[in-house]
Amino acid sequence: MNARQVGYQCLNFAMIVSSALMIWKGLMVVTGCESPIVVVLTGSMEPAFQRGDILILTMDINDPIRVGDITVFKIDGKDIPIVHRVIKVHEKNGTRFLTKGDNNPTDDRGLYAPGQYWLTLTDVVGRAKGFVPYVGMVTILMNDNPKFKYIVLGLLGLFVLVHRD
Amino acid sequence: MVEGENQDKGAPEPIKVVKWDGPTVKNTLDDCVKKVINENYSTWKERHTLADGRLFLSVIAVGFAAFALVYDYLYPFPLSKMVLATCSISYFVLMFVLQIYQWYVEKTTFYQAAENDGKNPARYWRWSSEMKRYDDKYTLVAEYTQGSRWGSMKLVKSIASYITEDGEVLLSLLKKDVDYLRDQATSKRE
Known about the structure:
The complex is a heterodimer.
Chain A lengths: L2 H29 L5 E3 L14 E5 L11 E4 L8 E9 L5 E5 L18 E2 L3 E9 L4 H8 L1 H17 L3
Antiparallel strand pairs in A: 1-2, 2-7, 3-4, 3-7, 4-5, 5-6
Chain B lengths: L14 E2 L5 H19 L3 E4 L1 H26 L6 H26 L2 E7 L7 E9 L5 E10 L2 E10 L9 E2 L1 H17 L3
Antiparallel strand pairs in B: 1-7, 2-3, 3-4, 4-5, 5-6
Helix pairs in contact in B: 1-4, 2-3
């Protein structure tokens, strides 16, 4: 394999990574949301969403939050987004709302930051517009077993680098 | 199937291939044709303009993606929205251009060369090959352009003409056909 072929194999690999990256960034632009695809990690929204479902989010600041909307939000200080339903909304002096998981016995005040009783628009990552069932289990598996993730990615990378079209 | 040849002392390693693996056989035969030409035709110099074109397009595309990545890291979304949109679109446009380039410009070419004997204008050669899936017929095409003249010659032979029972590629037999193609292509007047 001469230098050009090696260069091309590496570029092939870079193009696959870039394609995935550009699709992700493209989705971010189209949905208006910094995290357009999230995986449901817990059963707190059953029976609507099961653990392992993938949610497609959009973010429209001009569409007001209403009771019954399923929002994905982040709490200050925690970096895992939560997917729950809005159960109370106040709009005087800026929008504030309260959420609760369908399958949880109480509202989410126990999850909010200490002293925080309401969520505001800045906490919202997006609203669920569509979902794909089961597919997210792969992500959950890979995150629970990092070795498995590295082996799979390593093998894929190796295959792309060595395979000649 | 052809018989194996006697090896001279100090002869190079025999080239072996798994004779049932179609794509690898085609790639190996292509590499052998290149080897035969580069080692025997002293006035021929290999050119890489097509491969360089492909590399250039790929580098630009990856460049867009890398720029988008860095920009988004430095100025997180939604500040980077316009840059991301532009880079994303440019990337996919370039991917499309690259695909068109591979289908219509590069096609099945695997070797280019410039033949310069000092007297006449340079002859630009383009060798391409094809082999259908699960088929044993290897099609080798030699084309050249010299100023306004051009010539081409095609040869279709079973890979069994060049590869032994054990999967060894016999360069001498391949060289005969490479010489034949070159002579036929240049002798036809266009």
